[in-house]
């Protein structure tokens, strides 16, 4: 039977996903067979393997651990459809919609199924790195909290508690969490204070006070990382109202409501002389060389928002004088008509932007898995593989299509294509040549991510934290 080690937070967006990824990297390099695991995730950042859908964060952690992504790394995924409804994905496959008011019953229903998966992966690996969800001490949610309380208590999993000092209130975050859950205090290996800015000596007394008050070891005061790293939650995604000055290729991702799969564009952010911003600002969109319309979990609401914001003419102008790229839901929005007779996303019929000449029909069954197409883009004539997650089917006349393009407008259902270095480099070279921008050296995405993780692990604060954590865990 393998061991498990959990990274849980005082609240959302404290750095759980990144610390879990770094732990996967660190312990796999120590020769252990490591498996990332998040029992339940609510996220619109998903990818599809041959098995079905899973959260992108666990796929990133799999990369860090040198493992192939598997739906057993994230057995239960909830994808918000609207404010009070979410689609249920279990082991990669849709199992209906979770309506408002049934959350407690739903978690009790899935408890044994999720825990059975955890037992399987625990027995097959040397170490399972568990990522929690939200805050550990959400007292109104403890009954059935599969990702935190129930999992830790049932399997006696040792854990590290993570607090975020950048958002303030670090003492009630750390001390309050331990005080509210005394029954789990013994299982904690200690706590870390994450995202610290400035001279660490200024908070030495604070770390000592927290250790004394909680009775738990202070494992590390971890610095704020200015580099781009894994941000799983769109609520914590920084929106920009402008580009930096310079010769970079300017890419704006339109951050409309129900934005999904925004991590599709992480490889573009890692390229040299490319600036990628997520924005709703019309001036920033106008300044961009390329505007991307990303995936959406409610295409109708996203399209209505574009019209409410008065962005239609701007996007049409970008199609004439700049570049547009629509991915999945964004591809559907670029078309002429969207029809959803079954109410799978928005219900009814909507006029699209009409920038590309296709129409889209939403119907069952949902498609989630690997997909290949020959998109006919002006810069790419080879077969292209990716993954799809969609109810929509798009047609040009009577022919169903996966991709469509003109000289300056590109659309496709293929998620994950920007992770393919050759495709990404060809696309960026085409944009630069057309715009008259200087060439830039290409980047290997996997090597860039591994390099980022390794550089963090080599920093004294992080190296000391993981050495101490390893001593405590093995002890």
From TrEMBL:
Residues 6-226 form the CobQ/CobB/MinD/ParA nucleotide binding domain. Residues 250-422 form the CobB/CobQ-like glutamine amidotransferase domain. InterPro entries: Class_I_gatase-like, CobQ/CobB/MinD/ParA_Nub-bd_dom, CobQ_GATase1, CobQ_synth, GATase_3, P-loop_NTPase. Keywords: Cobalamin biosynthesis, Glutamine amidotransferase. One of its GO terms (biological process) is cobalamin biosynthetic process. SUPFAM superfamilies: Class I glutamine amidotransferase-like, P-loop containing nucleoside triphosphate hydrolases. One of its GO terms (molecular function) is catalytic activity. HAMAP family: CobQ (MF_00028). This is Cobyric acid synthase. The gene is cobQ.
């Amino acid at each position: 039977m393998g061991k498990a080690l959990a990274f849980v937070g005082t609240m959302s967006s404290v750095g759980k996903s990144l610390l879990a990824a770094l732990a996967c990297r660190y312990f796999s390099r120590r020769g252990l067979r490591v498996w990332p695991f998040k029992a339940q995730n609510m996220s619109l950042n998903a990818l599809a393997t041959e098995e079905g859908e899973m959260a992108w964060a666990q796929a990133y952690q799999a990369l860090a651990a040198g493992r192939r992504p598997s739906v057993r790394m994230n057995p239960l995924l909830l994808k918000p459809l609207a404010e009070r409804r979410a689609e249920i994905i279990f082991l990669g496959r849709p199992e209906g919609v979770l309506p408002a008011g049934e959350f407690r019953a739903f978690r009790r229903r899935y408890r044994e199924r999720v825990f059975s998966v955890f037992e399987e992966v625990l027995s097959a690996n040397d170490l399972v790195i568990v990522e929690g969800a939200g805050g550990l001490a959400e007292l109104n949610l403890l009954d059935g909290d599969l990702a935190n309380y129930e999992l830790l208590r049932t399997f006696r999993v040792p854990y590290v508690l993570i607090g975020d000092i950048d958002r303030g209130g670090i003492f009630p975050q750390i001390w309050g969490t331990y005080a509210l859950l005394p029954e789990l205090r013994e299982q904690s290996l200690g706590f870390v204070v994450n995202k610290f800015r400035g001279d660490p000596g200024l908070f030495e007394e604070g770390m000592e006070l927290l250790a004394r008050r909680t009775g738990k070891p202070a494992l590390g005061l971890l610095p704020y990382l200015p580099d781009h790293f894994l941000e799983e939650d769109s609520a914590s995604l920084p929106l920009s109202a402008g580009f930096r000055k310079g010769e970079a290729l300017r890419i704006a991702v339109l951050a409309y409501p129900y934005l999904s799969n925004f991590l599709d564009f992480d490889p573009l952010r890692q390229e040299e002389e490319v600036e990628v911003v997520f924005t709703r600002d019309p001036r920033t969109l106008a300044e961009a060389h390329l505007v991307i319309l990303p995936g959406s979990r409610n295409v109708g609401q996203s399209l209505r928002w574009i019209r409410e914001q008065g962005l239609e003419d701007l996007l049409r102008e970008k199609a004439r004088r700049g570049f547009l790229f629509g991915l999945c839901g964004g591809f559907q929005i670029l078309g002429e008509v969207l029809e959803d007779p079954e109410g799978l996303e928005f219900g009814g019929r909507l006029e699209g932007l009409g920038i590309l000449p296709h129409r889209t029909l939403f119907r069952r069954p949902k498609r989630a898995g690997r997909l290949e197409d020959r998109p006919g883009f002006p810069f790419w004539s080879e077969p292209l593989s990716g993954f799809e997650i969609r109810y929509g089917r798009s047609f040009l006349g009577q022919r169903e299509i996966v991709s469509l393009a003109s000289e300056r407008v590109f659309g496709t259902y293929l998620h994950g294509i920007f992770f393919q270095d050759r495709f990404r480099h060809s696309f960026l070279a085409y944009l630069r040549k057309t715009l008259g921008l200087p060439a830039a050296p290409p980047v290997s995405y996997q090597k860039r991510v591994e390099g980022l993780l390794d550089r963090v692990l080599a920093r004294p604060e992080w190296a000391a934290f993981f050495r101490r954590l390893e001593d405590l865990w093995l002890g």
